[in-house]
Design brief:
This protein has 463 residues and is an alpha/beta fold. Among the domains are: 179 residues, Rossmann fold; 68 residues; 71 residues. The protein has 15 helices and 16 strands. A 7-stranded mixed sheet has the order 1-4-11-8-5-7-6, sandwiched between helices. A 5-stranded mixed beta barrel has the order 12-13-14-16-15. Helix 3 links the parallel strand 6 and strand 7. Helix 9 packs antiparallel against helix 10. The longest helix is centred in the C-terminal third of the chain and has 19 residues. It is globular and about 65 Å long. The relative contact order is 0.08. Keywords: ATP-binding, Helicase, Hydrolase, Nucleotide-binding. This is Helicase C-terminal domain-containing protein. GO terms for molecular function: ATP binding; helicase activity; hydrolase activity; RNA binding. It holds the Pfam family Helicase_C. InterPro entries: Helicase_C-like, P-loop_NTPase.
Amino acid sequence: MKKKLVCSSINPKKISFLGLTISGNIRFFRWCATFGPPGIVQELCKKRKRHDQILCFVSSVAEVNQSCKLINQISRETIVAYPLIQSQHPNVQQDNIEHGNVFFATTVAETSLTCPCLKYVVDTGMINVPVYDFESKRTVLREVRAAESTIKQRLGRLGRTQPGEYYSLYDFKVDAVPYPVPQICQSDLMNIEFSSRKSPLRKGFNYMKSFLPDKPPQIVIDKIMKQLRDLNILENGSSDNLTEHGEDLAKLPDFGSFAMSKAVLAALHDYDCGRDLICLSAILGVLNTTGLLKSLPQHLKSPDGDFMTLLKVMDEILLARQSTPAKQFNLDQVCQANGLKEIQHIIRQALRRYQTLEKTFNQSPDFCTRAQVKSGDWELVAKSLSTDYLDNVFVSMKELHDRSHLFVRYNSRGDIAKLDLQSTLTRPISTAPVSIVLARDIRHSTAVRATAIISFVGEIKAE
C-alpha cells in the first residue's frame, strides 16, 4: 500500500488545517492511500492501544457495510468492524460502541453517538445527499463533499475523553463550503407548496419566498404551480385557489408526502380500504430504508410484497393493542412474542404516528366512518396507491426477453432499475423474477447512472 502522512500540528491551543480552525488536543493528518478507508483503518489498528477506538466516516450505508466486510477479509478476520447507521436500534448502536473498537459510520455518528475511548477519526470528507431534479422529476443520490459544519461535527467526536488523531482523506479547502446546501433548494417542493396552501395562511412559495434566506428558483416554483393545476389541485387562472378535489385533500392530516395523501383519499372515497392505507402510511412515514424487511419473521411476510408485509406488521400490533386493556398493553412484550424485537424502535414510532392519525380521523366529520373500513385486499390497496404512484410501475425485462433481473419503467421514460435486495419480492438468480411491480421509492445514483434501485414494492398481477 502506498501511503503518505502529513502532520499539521501537535496539541496546539488553536489549529489551522485545510482552512479549518478549531481548538483542542488533537493531531491532524492528511493521508493519501490507494487502498481506501479499510486499508487505512487496518494500518491504525497496528498502532492503537488495547482500548483505543477508531471511527471512520464514509458516505453511505452501502459503503459502511462493504467496509466492515472488506476489513474483515484483508485482516484475515483479526479485525472486527461494526456498522453505525441510522436504521439501527439505539440499543444495538450502544452495544456496538461498548464492545467494539473499530467502527464505520454514516452521518448518524456525527452528533448522536459518543465513543468513550475514541482515539482516531478517519474522514473521507464525503456524504451522500438526495437531490431532486426538477427537469426529470426524479431524486438522484449524489456523493458530494461535506460542508465545514459537517467536518466540525465529525472532528468534534475527538478530544472528549483523551487526546485524539484526525485523518483526512480529502484535500479540499474545508471553509470553502461553510454549510450544506439548504434542503429546500434540492427537494421536491410539491408537498410543502400544497401544505402551505391548505394552511390558514392559504399561500404558497410565491408569497413565502420573500421571508426565506435561501429561495427556490422561480422557475421551480412555476413548475410546481403548473403540476398542481394539471393534477386538478389548483384552479386555472391567476386566483390559485384550491379546486373541490384540492379542498378534499386539504381536509386530510399531513401524511408526509403529496403522493401518500392522494392514495389515502382514493382509499377513503373510491376503494373502501381507508384503514389499510392509514396503517400503511403510518409505518411508511417512519421508514427511509428497507433494512427492516429482511429481519421480519416469515409468518409476517406477504407474497404480495413489501406493502402488504408492512400492513401485516401493523395489523399484528394493532390487534394486540385492541384486545388488551390500555393500561396493560406492553409493546415490548408484543414485539418479543411476534419476533419484532429488533425493529421495536421503528414499531414504536409507527404506532405513535398511527395513534395521531387515528385521533384526527375520529374527529373528522367527513372521514370518520370511512377511516374505519378495512379490506386486507392487496388489489384495492394497489389501486389506491396507483392514484399517484402509477408512474412507478416497472416490468421485468424477462417479460421482454432481455436480462431477467432488471426492470424497465412501464411508461415512456424507459428507466432501467433493479429490485432492492432487502425487498420481500427478491428471488434467487436462478428463479424467474416477479413480472410487474409497483414501487414507492426509485433511487437514482450518479455513481451508477444507468440503473436505479426500486424499493418498497408490491407485485401487480396481470389480468
